[in-house]
Design brief:
Layout lengths: L1 H22 L7 E3 L2 E3 L2 H9 L4 H12 L8 H4 L4 H8 L26
Antiparallel strand pairs: 1-2
Length: 115
């Protein structure tokens, strides 16, 4: 009977110790296979997630991503900017309503032979 009690107590102690170790990892284990290191990303993520200032950083990132429409730059809204219009118009920007185009060359289609 004493032997059974000792075995049961040993099993319970072992289970309790492994449960305690599973809850709080002491450190992350890096495995090296064929010269390449493979860190435990799950463990690293848990260590990085315990930052009390992390929630504030997430909130600031969300606010930065949700910029109101009236505060966005015009090129993100699909509007014309002076730089884009200047590129499109060429050297006639500000002097003509027709964009700069190369001079028309004589001749017809290069696909027509024997003309």
């Amino acid at each position: 009977m004493k032997h059974l009690l000792n075995v049961t107590a040993g099993v319970l102690l072992t289970v309790g110790a492994t449960t305690a170790l599973a809850e709080e990892p002491l450190g992350c284990v890096e495995v090296s296979v064929g010269g390449y290191k493979a860190p435990d990303y799950n463990c690293l993520s848990q260590q990085m997630g315990n930052n009390p200032e992390g929630a504030a950083a997430v909130q600031k990132n969300q606010e930065a991503m949700n910029v109101p429409v009236n505060k966005r730059p015009p090129n993100q809204l699909g509007l014309a900017t002076p730089a884009a219009t200047g590129t499109r118009m060429g050297n006639t920007f500000g002097t003509s309503v027709k964009p700069q185009r190369p001079a028309a060359t004589g001749g017809g289609s290069p696909l027509i032979i024997g003309k």
